[in-house]
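COMPLEX REQUEST
Ligand: nicotinamide-adenine-dinucleotide
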Amino acid sequence: MPDLASTTCAITGGAGLIGSFLADQLVDAGADVVVVDDFSKGTRANIAHLDGKVDVREVDLEVMGSARAALAGTDFVFHLASRAYGVGHGAGRHGEILRHNERITDNVLDAVVTLRPQHVLVTSSSCVYPDDGPDTVPELPLFSGEPEAANRGYGWAKRFLEQKAVLASEEAGVPVTIVRPFNIYGERYAWVGESSQAIPMLVKKVMDGNDPVIIWGSGEQRRTYLHAADCALIMRRLVELGYTDGPVNIGLEETVSVRELVETLCRLADRHPALTCDRSKPEGRFVKSSDPTRLFEAVPDFAPTVGLDDGLDRMIGWYRSTFS
Ligand SMILES: NC(=O)c1ccc[n+]([C@@H]2O[C@H](COP(=O)([O-])OP(=O)(O)OC[C@H]3O[C@@H](n4cnc5c(N)ncnc54)[C@H](O)[C@@H]3O)[C@@H](O)[C@H]2O)c1
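STATUS: Structure written out below.
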């Protein structure tokens, strides 16, 4: 079983939301941590508390050959860098998103095959799953139908990433862990306007004092949410446990409707706006929940450390520090 202490662990996208929490985890594990990021979305503020504990390499992983230099000398590679945005971003941009992410994938996997680290983790997404699958999604095979419609280009990029990672792993003899996170959120989110993800968008609407607060779709659509600190903890444990038996969903079965989410936010922030649903806006599939059977088989000691109320409270803090 790999012991991360005294090893060198690289995190691509390590200045981003999940990557920066993973940097915390790996520093805690006693690893020397290399953060590789182009800061297109991730921020130096996200890793400022690790000053002196992480080696920061500012690199655009889309540039051919860049990953070989950036990942040289590392024992474990946690690959998280990608163009990742909310559903409002995808329309009309699916091809562009696919091409950006493909360039990153090819460069990082080229480096993995060349440098042969001890182990690599690649970060896929629940967007690989089709919209017409079961409400509670187990780790389905990749190529049944189209990926999630609202994130088609991104979903295809993640399907290709998984497939290419498996082939690179076979070619280079490097064990690979593949993860498919569901909806991950947290207070290190970088605001990107209308392209932002659902929770930051809703927090901003409530905290800006919108009245009514307009919810996209029926408001009854149900999702499962996990804090980025817990996603990072799972990534660390999967690699520590040497897990390589197929892709693992990172998400829980329990869901909350978007309306319930906004009501919770309003309660925590002591705001009392009317809530209006705009059914002309996309809401995606009605229920999307993760079957966590494989996750708990792989990491039996996992228990979430940040509940939804606590996490949303932190997001209210995020709003205050980001916009005031
Ligand atoms: N947050 C979620 O809900 C979620 C769900 C499923 C999958 N994921 C995946 O998890 C990973 C991390 O997501 P996140 O939420 O932390 O997103 P994020 O945008 O906060 O982090 C991605 C990081 O990659 C960096 N990056 C982007 N392009 C780069 C490039 N060309 N070179 C170097 N760095 C680059 C960004 O600056 C950012 O720091 C991504 O692969 C994402 O697709 C996230």
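REMARKS: The longest strand covers residues 32-37. The first helix runs from residue 17 to 28.
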